[in-house]
Structure prediction request, 266 residues.
Amino acid sequence: MYGYSYGDKSYTNGVVGEETLTMTSSDGGSVNFPNITFGCGHENVGGFDSHGAGIIGLGGGPLSLVSQLGPSVGKKFAYCLVPYAQNTTSSRMDFGDNAVVSGDGTVITPLISKKGRETFFYGTLEKISVGENSVSVPSPEKGNIIIDSGTTLTILPTSAHKSLVSVLKSAINLQPVRDPSKYFDLCYEFGKDLKIPDLTFGFDGGELVLGSMNTFLQVNENLTCLSFVGTDSLAIIGNIAQQNFKIGYDLSDMKVAFQPTDCTHQ
Prediction:
């Protein structure tokens, strides 16, 4: 038996099994990975729905799919997440040599592993810039933010989040409107006049430019909101911020690479 819970209070209970995993190879054939351990959930509560068959673990823990595949794929994997509004094309994952991300526009930053938290991949975010203005991100040590494909929103330290909201208000020449749910801190009426500036994430190693798709979320037909929230605990770069980037993890060299990509054509 197993039990597993997530940060959003979702959980799954069931039994552990073992099976041969088969994936399509880049040469058009297939490749088998025997003795892959997985969980078969009998009680799945929270953020699970009928559209998903399950969750693939991509973290650094010993039971994640990436860790189990390990040396057979060179400890390399990549994904390219299609935009939320795109519902006709699937996102793509690659393992091994096809997961190497390089070329024009690629930003590479070191990954930091922390003892006792090996499941998380940490990067070091030094600042966020909006035009000429920048917001420093508190960084008592290397590895101050988690890069996570399984979290939706981007979660920043409270002080940095408040400063960023203030800078964005000054940069966007429109009157903000209140979020009826009181969840988001900065919202605007959705329409043609809304011009959202790019945000530049200054990582240890390079600067990553995020467009409006990566920073604002249309929450209903009339409202779009900054898809960032503040926290006094773990800071996380969520999957909205990762849309339309091919993101490659190299766990041998402990680095992650971001390349702007139209993920609908991967």
Observations:
- Helices lie at 65-69, 158-171, 212-215.
- The mean pLDDT is 93.
- The longest strand covers residues 30-45.
